[in-house]
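for the recovery benchmark. tokens below, seq after
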């Protein structure tokens, strides 16, 4: 669990990045309609959660940089006996204070007045504030039919001369480097992931359905983590389906002699493990499967050896393409290096954190690929070869913590050595 003083420190660092005499408002979000009167399960805006530790919908945070001094206010839903009977308990002001470390806890209907007090020249409660930061991610809903982009338009119409800025790049920049506490949460998520993978390896058999293995993974990690759920929908792909990067329909029956590619992860306090292992269902790789597996494993180890401060994800990608193309050419799997695009067509790495693909600057930005790695950043290491024409797909993915002199493979205890995989599978049978 992240302590309240760490959330308070994050807010102070964010205020230090804001212009002087400016304000910021970040919303937790509300549930999105799926159909008729049903909504999707609520997922808190990760930027709001990063700053507060609060995961309750219909909440907001307001920060003010007033001549270099921080003012902060956290807004939560009022007690509503009827709603609690239907939807469960809501946070009290005392609980919100304990979690977030914010002393000024107000009800969410007080937010418009606080914003007006900051931006209205008739009040200027915090001095002359002419700039406000909003989290302008693509789809943050703050009411049934209102997004942060629509809220931006409301602010601009109501307060002429006030400049609305995007807080998203500031917050995601802070999120890049993980604290010791954040790394500890990810370690816990990886531990649960390891338990889930072990359960799948013990149960998988020819004739099982892919979704049965995905369901078993989910149950196992929830039993371990206290129902904290998945980092992302589990990819459980057997045989030729392993050649589809985000195989969405795990409905097939696992066939004799096939490989099972499992790309999955548990989460802990929203920190997302992201692990891929590919194993032979019958317990032993064929000679061809082992040949391809060894190429991917060699590349996975090369990336981990190369990852260190100053290196970029683009550097790792270039080295990966060179490694895979050279090895595949040398083993007669392709006729020229350029043909590697037919078997490897994705990036080898991305940032990991509160989102499985932790963002930077912009939710759709590719700029993260050129960011020099620094200690405290966590990235994936996931080369693969996808040979639909040969009926197999193999990916091996680890989570790497960048250190002062290199990296730590956080997922090193999840077995990937092919001889060890075969030994373990034999013992489970």
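predicted aa per position
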């Amino acid at each position: 669990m992240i302590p309240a003083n760490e959330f308070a420190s994050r807010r102070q660092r964010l205020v230090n990045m804001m212009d002087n005499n400016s304000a910021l408002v970040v919303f937790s979000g509300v549930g999105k309609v799926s159909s008729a009167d049903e909504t999707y399960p609520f997922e808190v805006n990760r930027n709001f959660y990063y700053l507060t530790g609060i995961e309750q919908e219909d909440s907001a945070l307001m920060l003010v940089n007033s001549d270099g001094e921080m003012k902060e206010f956290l807004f939560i839903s009022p007690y509503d006996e009827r709603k609690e009977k239907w939807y469960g308990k809501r946070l009290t002001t005392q609980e919100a204070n304990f979690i977030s470390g914010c002393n000024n806890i107000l009800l969410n209907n007080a937010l418009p007045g606080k914003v007006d007090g900051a931006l209205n020249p008739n009040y200027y409660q915090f001095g002359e504030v002419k700039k406000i930061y909003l989290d302008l991610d693509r789809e943050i809903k703050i009411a049934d039919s209102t997004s942060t982009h629509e809220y931006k338009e409301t602010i601009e119409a109501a307060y002429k001369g006030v400049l609305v800025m995007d807080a998203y790049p500031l917050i995601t920049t802070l999120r890049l480097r993980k604290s010791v506490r954040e790394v500890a949460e990810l370690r816990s998520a990886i531990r649960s992931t390891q338990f889930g993978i072990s359960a799948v390896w013990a149960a998988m058999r020819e004739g099982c359905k892919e979704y049965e293995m995905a369901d078993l993974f989910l149950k196992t990690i929830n039993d371990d983590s206290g129902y904290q759920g998945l980092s992302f929908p589990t990819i459980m792909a057997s045989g030729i389906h392993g050649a589809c990067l985000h195989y969405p329909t795990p409905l097939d029956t696992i066939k004799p002699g096939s490989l099972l590619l499992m790309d999955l992860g548990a989460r802990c306090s929203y920190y997302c493990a992201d692990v891929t292992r590919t194993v032979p269902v019958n317990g032993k790789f064929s000679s061809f499967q082992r040949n391809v597996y060894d190429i991917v494993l060699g590349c996975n180890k090369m990336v981990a050896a190369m990852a260190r401060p100053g290196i970029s994800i683009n550097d790792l990608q270039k080295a990966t393409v060179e490694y895979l193309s050279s090895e595949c050419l040398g083993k007669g799997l392709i006729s020229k290096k350029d043909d590697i695009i037919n078997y490897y067509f994705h990036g080898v790495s991305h940032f990991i954190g509160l989102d499985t693909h932790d963002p930077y600057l912009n939710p759709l930005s590719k700029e993260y690929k050129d960011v020099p790695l620094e200690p405290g950043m966590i990235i994936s290491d996931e080369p693969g070869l996808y040979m639909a024409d040969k009926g197999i797909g193999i990916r091996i993915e680890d989570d790497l913590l960048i250190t002062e002199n290199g990296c730590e493979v956080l997922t090193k205890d999840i077995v990937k050595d092919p001889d060890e995989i075969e030994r373990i599978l034999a013992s489970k049978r």
